[in-house]
Automatic annotation (TrEMBL):
The protein's name in its UniProt record: Putative integrase
UniProt keyword list: DNA integration, DNA recombination, DNA-binding
GO BP term, pick one: DNA recombination
InterPro entries in the cross-refs: CB (IPR044068), DNA_brk_join_enz (IPR011010), Integrase-like_cat_sf (IPR013762), Integrase_catalytic_putative (IPR024456), Integrase_recombinase_N (IPR010998), Putative_integrase_N (IPR024457)
Domain Core-binding (CB): 6-86
Gene Ontology molecular-function annotations: DNA binding
Length: 246
């Protein structure tokens, strides 16, 4: 990482927010830095960033098929970093509004749809053959309506959830990987299926030194989750998020 990337990363941290928000912001500024370097744009400081550099980045992302809602979030991160660096004039430039960049009109409701039972079973069987731990996390995501990071970090709650099931609780508390770091509750729709999935996940975790996704840290585990999910057919409208709507 060059001087620009290092400065942007530090500023991204100083903008504040939850651990996940800060982490996402860091990834965005690093992607922006890589974009400039790929174009041979040699700037060393945030003070040298121009409006056209950001326009170029967003146009490239649009050409890659990235959704407008995602790019609105990316622009919010870039604006926050520019504001943090005292570049208010660039951050609030009329050419960098969502409307000017062609990002207006995106709905917060998203374009995801519930995965069909047939597609889910195909994906699950493929995952079981490739990686039982990944399959166990996918199954929990489907049965409990977990987000991707919640599913990856679910191993930390398996025993607690199992105890809750044994107490005949009708809700389970999700603590790890939640949006904004806020614990939330999920309703148990099929107690027998959830109990079976938890038993399976616990057995796999026990054989993997306490892990479902056998990676050394959260970042590599999340990268693995997204890469493998795409390979087994969880892409487009049927992204891993579609498991939540089933």
């Amino acid at each position: 990482m060059g001087k620009l990337g290092g400065e942007m990363k530090a500023l991204a941290k100083h903008c504040g927010g939850s651990h996940k928000t800060v982490n996402d912001r860091i990834h965005i500024v690093q992607r922006f830095d890589h974009h400039l370097r790929a174009l041979n744009v040699h700037i060393q400081r945030v003070a040298q960033i121009k409006v056209r550099h950001i326009e170029s980045y967003i146009h490239e992302r649009l050409a890659q098929g990235i959704g407008k809602r995602t790019l609105q979030n990316e622009m919010a991160s870039l604006r926050a970093v520019l504001q943090q660096a005292g570049r208010k004039q660039v951050a609030e430039h009329e050419w960098l509004t969502n409307k000017s960049l062609g990002l207006a009109g995106a709905s917060r409701s998203g374009t995801r749809q519930a995965i069909t039972p047939e597609h889910y079973h195909h994906v699950l069987e493929t995952a079981r053959m490739k990686d039982p731990g990944l399959a166990a996390a996918l199954e929990l995501a489907r049965l409990m309506g977990l987000r991707s990071q919640e599913a990856v970090q679910s191993v930390q709650s398996l025993k607690t959830w199992k105890q809750a099931i044994e107490r005949s609780d009708t809700r389970l508390t999700v603590v790890f990987g939640t949006k904004g770091g806020r614990p939330r509750e999920t309703v148990i729709l099929d107690t027998i299926a959830v109990r079976k999935a938890l038993d399976n996940a616990l057995a796999i975790a026990e054989s993997r030194h306490g892990r479902l996704i056998d990676k050394p840290d959260l970042k590599s585990a999340m990268d693995y989750w997204h890469n493998q999910a795409a390979r087994i057919g969880l892409t487009g409208a049927y992204s891993p998020h579609s498991l939540r709507y089933a």
